[in-house]
Amino acid sequence: MSNRLLQTLAICLVAIAMLGATSPDTRVEHLGHKLVCQCGCGQILLECNHVGCPVSPVMIDELKSQVAGGATDTGVLNFFIAKYGPIALAAPMRGGFDNVAWIVPIAVLILATFGVALVVLFWKRRNDNMNPAIADHARLKTDDAIQNRIRRDTNYDNWSDSDFRDRSDK
Amino acid sequence: MSHPMPTFGTFSLLLALALCVYTLFAGALALRALATGRALAISPERLRETARRAGIASFIAVTCAAFALVWASFTNDYSVDYILHHTNRALHPAYKFSALWSGQEGSLLLWAWLLAAYGFVLRLRHKVDVTLSAYASTILAGIQIFFLLLLNFAAPPFSIAQGPLARDGFGLNPLLQYPEMIIHPPMLYLGYVGFSVPFAFALGALMMRYPGEKWIHITRRWTMVTWLFLTCGICLGMHWAYAVLGWGGYWGWDPVENASFLPWLTGTAFLHSVMMQEKRGMMKAWNVWLIFATFMLSILGTLLTRSGIVSSVHAFAQSSIGSWFTTFLIIIFVVCLFTYFYQRDHLKAENKLESLVSRESSFLFNNLILLVACFTVLFGTLWPVISEFYDGSKVTMGPPYFNRVMVPVGLFLILLTGVGPLLPWRSTSLRAIRRNFILPCVAIVVTAIALMLFGVRPWQDDEAAGGIYALLCFSFSAGVITAITSEFLRGAGVARTQSGKNLLLSAITLVRRNTRRYGGYLIHFGVVVMFIGLAGSAFNQSKEMEMGFGDSIQLGNLKIVCQSFSQDSNPNYDSDFALLDVYRGAKKITQLTPERRFYTASQTTSTMVAIHSTLARDIYIVFEGRNPETDRPIIKVFLNPLVNWIWIGVFIVIIGTGIALTPPLLPIARRVEATDPQLETQTSKLVPTPANV
């Protein structure tokens, strides 16, 4: 009973794994966009559009054979690094120092966001300290009064089209 | 053997250099005398005027040099080395003209000429503010001297070719023989060079401790026009890459593309944060450094792409002038830094931020995102150099890196595009937030659900990330468009109540009363439309096949059938092309003719992509060449959704900028008599213009 249960479980696991597996064509498409043609055109391997390009067909064949041979994604990329150097990768993906390229922009974004938030809070606190007598809502109320007064005095709300002249006319 | 035109050109460049040197030194001397009150042999005002006139004359001299090169190109003067290497007799006249900027020396001459033209306009309009214009004119002359030194001594465009006179030239790079290349480089250069003017005004205003924010009003139009040129230049470059390079995309994160994007990002940040200085007297030092950085980045971009520090497929003009640019960049930085430290007390803010949720803070975060984007692009562009320096191995920074890092940043930016205009200045209440944001939030959720219902379910794809980003982009875009539309309709509704006219006329009046605000909204709308187009790339499809007569490719619901393939020839190039019919079901929708050309003069090949554009998608077909064994063409077909939205978005941005540049209708001035002294002092800061009431 327990054996049968284990077998069923194993079959289910394999089935689930098979569901997640990608076809070789998809993997070639996926990995081919992580590599750069080494003919000097600087294009992504599968987007190199030079007919007669001496390099891209060879690289694509190598990619297909690596995928067909069952190599993992990392294994395939390592094969190309070993053969052509890290320049064959379309982005730094070797780990180690390459990680810095990915971490720095995110770190800068986080630090800058944090920094701006701190600056805003610092300014706000200093502003509050400089005007302790007037509470925020009261100050806003005063400003609103000033704005309303300006609107009233300049009659802005009641401007009609005849009140407007093109600045260029003046 | 005499060479009258090259001699004329060379002499003109030397004369221009002498005139600019005079403009710089006479201008500096006069301004120093005026600032310190020191006496000179002649009156400082007269000396300043002679400097201005010398600056105007330098424009004429550089124009003569540019004319001499164009003349040499049209008359096939192959005694000039530059003309020999960049033109040939069979070249179309339009491309003979564009040869002016197809190589190193010519493009530097174009740069110098545009700078002289900007200087010419600035000096003619000096009455806007005589002293500030004189400072800006003197600084521009300093920049111009650098380019004229390059043209006279490092990269002379009129060098005489060695050996016997050639009968024909080597021709123009085929990639440059495309209509857009006639306007794309000048547009881009107008953008790059144009930032010299706000830079010169900012530096001049800081040097002379210019009171108030008038310099911002003076330079606002310069900055916006320059920004527009740069935007158009970048987008024309995208369209050129899309239509000519034949890889199915428009932006490959190439160093040359990145170099143009860097000043655009900081320039955009400047255009936003400068409003805080105008309205609230804040961020003065920040703004000054933003415009300094924008100008320096335009020089840095040129340095990166011309010095060979980073390699690029787009670099048509590489040489060893990198050390000149490095020196120039260091000098600019030192001058900016020195001036800033010397005058920094002049840049004290008049107000401070009062709330985390306000228009000011949204500008701050907008600046943050744009500058992080700028840093990321610069960092990614320089990473191969950093990596080589660290461990000696050269690496590539291609689209996989930039797309992964920049797309989330772009999504943040889209969100801010919608949020920013909905927040009032100074601070806001929770009620106002709820009132302003409820509709856009609903639009975001409804769009996301609707897209998922209609089959956009990226988590089911192999490349889920791109699809998820696209889904987010579409949803956020819907939110921003709703925000812009509701804001606009709300304003139009108020205008209708006041004027009693219909909604359309009220809306027009509203826009005319506040061109800057509503022009800005339109620009935001255009940017969102562009983002929608960019997000479409997540759903690109392609297929490649060798095609004989009657063979077909099925892609999506389209069938492409090969009708014929043939060859043609003219004096400039030989071409291979295919005639392909495109069917949707049984209905033929178009016939396309992708082509591959072989240019005889330069002995190089180039693709001419065939594109059928609709609002929904582009059918993009590339003739990749012939199979040497079967002699049959190899055709690659792409289905690129929503590409047209990008170009439509650019068009909207242009219209929006045009509106924002138009002077608004102003009310007839009415006298305000304040009775309360406290109100009187405060009202002087709150001048009621349609922009701030």
| Rg estimate of chain A, integer Å | 33 Å
Strand content bin of chain B: 5-15%
Helix/strand structural class of chain A: mainly alpha
Task: Indicate the proportion of strand residues of chain A.
Answer: under 5%
Total helices of chain A: the number is 6
Oligomeric organization of the protein chains: heterodimer
Helix content of chain A: 55-70%
SSE arrangement of chain A, N to C: HHHHHHE
The coarse silhouette of chain A is: elongated
User: What's the helix count of chain B?
Assistant: 20
The total count of strands of chain B amounts to 11
Largest sheet of chain B: 6 strands, antiparallel
Residue ranges of chain A: pLDDT <50 for 5 or more in a row?
Answer: 13-21, 154-170
Mean pLDDT of chain A: 72
Report the largest inter-chain contact.
A-B, 68 and 74 residues
**Cα separation of the termini of chain B:** 71 Å
Helical content class of chain B: 55-70%
| Rg for CA atoms of chain B | 28 Å
The biggest beta sheet of chain A reads: none
Specify the overall morphology of chain B: globular
Please report the distance between the alpha carbons of the first and last residues of chain A.
98 Å
Question: In words, what does this structure look like?
Answer:
The complex is a heterodimer of chains A (170) and B (693). Chain A is mostly helical. Helix content of chain A is 62%, strand content 2%. The longest helix of chain A has 33 residues, at 98-130. Chain A is elongated. Chain A starts with a helix and ends with a strand. The model of chain A is unreliable at 13-21 and 154-170 (pLDDT under 50). By secondary structure, chain B is α+β, with helices and mostly antiparallel strands. Chain B is 61% helix and 11% strand. Chain B has helices spanning 4-36, 44-74, 81-86, 93-98, 104-124, 130-154, 180-194, 196-207, 214-245, 255-280, 284-307, 322-343, 359-391, 399-419, 430-453, 464-499, 503-513, 515-535, 643-661, 677-683; strands at 541-546, 552-555, 558-569, 573-584, 587-592, 595-599, 604-608, 610-613, 617-626, 633-641, 665-667. In chain B, the strands form 2 sheets. In chain B, strands 2, 3, 4, 5, 6 and 7 form a 6-stranded antiparallel beta sheet that branches. Chains A and B meet through helix 5, helix 6 and strand 1 of A and helix 13, helix 14, helix 17, strand 9 and strand 11 of B.
